[in-house]
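To: structure subgroup
Subject: Chain for Friday's discussion

All,

I'm putting the inputs and outputs inline so they're searchable in the archive.
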Amino acid sequence: MSMKSNTHSHAGFSSLRRRILAGGAAAGPAILLQGLGAGRALAAAQYPGSAPIELVVPGGPGAGTDVVARVAAQGLAEHLPHNVVVKNMPGAAGIIGAQAVSRAQPDGHTLLFAITGTHTVNQFLYPDLPYNPQKDFDPVSLVCKYNNVLVVRPDFEARNFKDLVALVRASPGKYFYGITANGSSSHLATELLKSEAKLEMPGVPYRSAAAAVSDFLGGQFPIFMDTVINQLPYIRSGKAIALATTGAERSPVLPDVPTIAESGFPGIVAIGWGGIMVPAGTPKAATQALNQAVQKTLASPAFDNLKNGGLETQYTTPEEMATFIREESAKWGKLVKAGNIKPS
């Protein structure tokens, strides 16, 4: 990414200084208050100014969230008058990164690439969460949604979704699945399926999605729920058989694979998501500038390669993002409590 600079004009402040000196002591305070207001307006109008913008990613380098966030950062830098630097802060299911941003100066120069865990699930898994997902952040826009896909190994007896449900029901507890990350959208999608379809299918948590994928492909377990973007290469190569996806509509890159919702369980719609958030109290001018930059980025070819690989982009207004998060939180909160899901 190329660095961009912005030159500030000091004419307004010089004029203010001359007025204060000429106006005398009595007029000074009133003029000074007016001048401070003008200064704040000028700063907002010139956002982001000369200070760098930092996008905190609550995950490690190279992970799926990191890849998407870096493309987003590149797009923001191209549509704002400054560079955007990605800062990885992995650990504690995204809590470390989210907490850092919640405590940052609310000036629009520290952003969070918020994800399903940080803002819709962790609040129900961790009773002592060190930040409030609703009160400590202001939404900017969604960036993407992660559709999930239910896959089986090529040697598995069931070759379609209906047969899988029948097979698992006939042998309660015999089959188990791998959990890429406790509380992830793929984990919760499977738990939702188990609840709705009355399936007894234990889950085994893994330390990472890569480890879970490796064991699935190696034959350690036969049934797997993972994001489309992760599984698409294995589906295309024949190493995994896609039975159903979890979105409201079919995945654009798997148009022949039905959704679970259209396969007899209309209540099962389970997706992950990623988006931009800022600390609560960030000036609206900054939030709007960031929102417009996201919109321009998503309208450009920036994400074309990732979309071809299964990512689904999604622009929203700040208000739409807030509504989406409230709805997702209500849904997953109910499932976490009903299923007694605990952190791994």
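Points worth raising on Friday:
Residues 11-45 form the longest helix (35 residues).
The chain has a mean pLDDT of 86.

D.
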